[in-house]
Amino acid sequence: MFRIRRVFDDSFPVNREAVSQVQQILRDQFPQLAKYDVDKIPELLLNPLKHRFRSIVYVAEDPHGMIKGFALLSHDAQLKFCYLDYISAAKNITGGGIGGALYEYVREEALSLGVYGIFFECLPDDPQLCKDPEILKQNRARLKFYESYQAYPIVGTAYETPVKPEDADNPPYLVCDPLGQEQPLPKEAARKIVQAILERRYGHLCPKDYIGRVVASFVDDPIRLRPPKYLKTEHQEKLHPVTGKFKRIALAVNDRHDIHHVRERGYVESPVRIRSILKELEKLDIFEKIKVEGYAERHIRAVHCADYINYFKRMCQTLEPGKSVYPYVFPLRNAARPPKEMAVRAGYYCIDTFTPLNQNAWNAAKRAVDCALSCADQLLEGRRLAYALVRPPGHHAEYNAFGGFCYFNSAAVAANYLSTFGRVAILDIDYHHGNGQQTIFYRRSDVLTVSLHGHPRFAYPYFCGFEEETGEEEGTGYNLNLPLPEQLAVEQYVKALQKALKRISRHKPAYLVVCLGLDTAKGDPTGTWGFTARDFSEIGQRLGQLQLPTLVMQEGGYKNRSIGVNARHFFSGLWGGHFAEDTGKPANENLSEKGRC
Ligand SMILES: [Zn+2]
Questions:
Q1: With 50 as the cut, is the pLDDT of residue 596 above it?
Q2: Which of 102, 352, 423, 467 is deepest in the core (most CB within 10 A)?
Q3: How many A from CA of 463 to the centre of ligand 1?
Q4: What is the DSSP string of 507-564?
Q5: From the CA of 431, how far away is ligand 1's center (Å)?
Q6: What is the 504 CA–ligand 1 centroid distance (Å)?
Q7: What Cα–Cα distance (Å) separates residue 489 from each residue in 179, 496, 527?
Q8: Is the bond preceding 392 in cis, omega lying within 30 degrees of 0?
Q9: Residue 591: its pLDDT value, please?
Q10: 359 falls in which pLDDT band (50, 70, 90)?
Q11: Is the pLDDT score of 69 beyond 90?
Q12: 203: closest CA among 51, 77, 41?
């Protein structure tokens, strides 16, 4: 059992440990490597400019954090290529599909970066070039493996020319994996790529004139790849296609949302919301529905207090089908003594009178959390964008309280989960203040919380969301509220959004969680603003331009006639902003501001 995840840097303990295990694999499996080449791995991740490549590490790890294998890919955005430096299983690990699984991730990554292909060296399978029959056998197996991904040696060049005559045996081929693209590689592009590879990776071994000769030997235009040798056309079924999934938005839909249906008049949070959104998203070819996994309750317990969780669970279990309990007594004066009567006690854990408990509220809310965590895992694997299309929403649920149609703060659960692997920012763009995550992370500096919302002077939840709430203790300066007037033009909103994005950039998060409320839309029964589909597209685009791995959580939005169209525009903007301007730099480098507050 292993899972594959991308390691962005080694600044968090879990990643530091992974990188150090990667270094051990290098020492074990590549004993000829210089100490410097092993030591520099953490710096490669942090300092791409120095090495003129952006390095991307994927690890295959077991549930205990043991690294079973890894791949290191280098990306050059200008020359549009990736170079595969290493792909290796750990010592004493053979089989189990680790190499294949890692290579598949690397291919998805490369395809999403819009490159010509992946290049790497592979020892030759020609008996003229490799004298040792044992090594020749291994070389053949390796090239056969890559053929199953339609990666072939580049032919008709002098790449295999040994630098010194005594190195004549076993000179490597340069292999190219065009990632299933029908995009021919022009001679000029190929020459620049080969020059970059030789200078940056083998500059210490190859004299300048040698490099010049090899580069000049690329005369075919476009370059030619060797025809399949091992897997001929009749073996099509053995070929592994690249799916392009990293360029798609992972979509997790709460399949249990409609069991939670409060039929009272005026309860606007209804199942039709999800159906309306899904219908419109189907018009875009940028989503991939993912399987929603079940996660342990401990993830919820990490952000909500045990008393509240236990009460919520028990109360829901005891209610008969179709029966709802509305909080109606709020024992604010004696918080130390929760009322004994279960139904009365609802008010002890609730912030309003319109969020009922019923038999299915627990199941639906738990499933919404599962969707959020399934999306978070997609980001950890290297996916750029994920969308948890869920109800009930979650951003009003606090550490020890539910309310505002929310029971569990799914965004906070996901943010907390991701925070083990890197800094996180939560941006709440629902019309209503994100009081839930504000209270949950109020004393933490690793999860920045930012909210743009209708001023609590006139908008729910009324008691918080003010500008002066900036965090406490270690979290001081890590909560930003941008309360906005009752009537506002979208230009004013965009100005506030820019301020929010600047603050997020300064935080340098590895992951962004967006609480998407579509109740800022024109005609929403719970809001006062008038955003149109085009406005949502612009908002999405600006968020996408941050180029951060982003999880979007569905929160509010109650104008059922336009909610789907608005969601569609938001996501096409987000997707366009994220991928159209991919500069190939790590997320943090695209951010305009440096330093912390
Ligand atoms: Zn809302």
A1: no
A2: 102
A3: 15
A4: H--SEEEEEE--TTBTT-TT----B-HHHHHHHHHHHHTT---EEEEE-----HHHHH
A5: 5
A6: 21
A7: 46, 11, 14
A8: yes
A9: 36
A10: confident
A11: yes
A12: 51
**Is the predicted pLDDT of residue 595 greater than 60, yes or no?**
no
Q: Is the pLDDT of residue 323 over 90?
A: no
* The token pair that represents 78 in the structure block: 């200008």
**Confidence (pLDDT) at 261:** 72
Q: Torsions phi, psi of 45, nearest 5?
A: -70, -35
Long-range contacts of 70-73 (CB under 8 A, 24+ apart): 70/22, 70/25, 70/102, 71/102, 71/103, 71/105, 71/106, 72/22, 72/41, 72/44, 73/106, 73/109, 73/110, 73/118
Q: What percent of the chain has pLDDT over 70?
A: 93
Interacting residues of 544 by C-beta distance below 8 A, sequence separation 6+: 385, 550, 573, 574, 575, 576, 577, 578, 579
Largest CA distance in the chain: 89
* pLDDT number for residue 154: 97
Beta strands in 101-145 (DSSP E): 118-122
Other Cβ atoms closer than 10 A to 371:
29
Ligand 1 center–CA 40 separation, angstroms:
47
334 pLDDT more than 90: no
396 in active site: yes
Output the six-digit token pair for 38: 């092993």
DSSP class of 257: G
H-type helices in 295-385, by residue range? 298-301, 306-318, 342-345, 361-381
Note the residue count of the chain.
597
271 vs 285: CA distance, rounded Å: 24
- Looking at 169-223, list the stretches that DSSP marks H as alpha helix, in order from N- to C-terminal side: 187-202, 208-216
CA of 419 to the centre of ligand 1 (A): 25
Q: What's the pLDDT tens digit per position in 277-309? A: 999 999 999 999 999 999 999 999 999 999 889
In terms of phi and psi (left: phi > 0; alpha: psi -120 to 50; beta: otherwise), the region of 554 is: beta
pLDDT of amino acid 88: 94
Distance between Cα 391 and ligand 1 center (Å): 12
Q: Which helix (H) or strand (E) holds 103?
A: helix 98-112
Radius of gyration of the chain (CA): 27
Residue 122 CB neighbours (<10 A): 18
C-alpha 556, offset from chain centre: 22
CA–centroid distance, 375 to ligand 1, in Å, is: 22
Expressed in angstroms and rounded, the spacing between residue 519 Cα and the centre of ligand 1 is 6
Q: 293 by DSSP, 3-state: which? A: coil
The two structure tokens encoding residue 264: 């009272």
Residues β-bridged to residue 448: 425
**What are the residues whose beta carbon lies below 5 Å from ligand 1 (ion)?**
430-432, 517, 519, 556
3-state secondary structure 375-394: HHHHHHHCCCEEEEECCCCC
Active-site hit among 395, 396, 507, 578: 396
Cβ neighbours for 15, distance < 8 A, ≥ 6 positions apart = 7, 8, 9, 421, 422
Q: Which two tokens stand for residue 539?
A: 């908002």
φ/ψ (deg, to 5) at 254: -70, 100
pLDDT for 40: 92
Calculate mean pLDDT across residues 441-449.
98
From ligand 1's centre to the CA of 459, what distance in Å?
Answer: 9
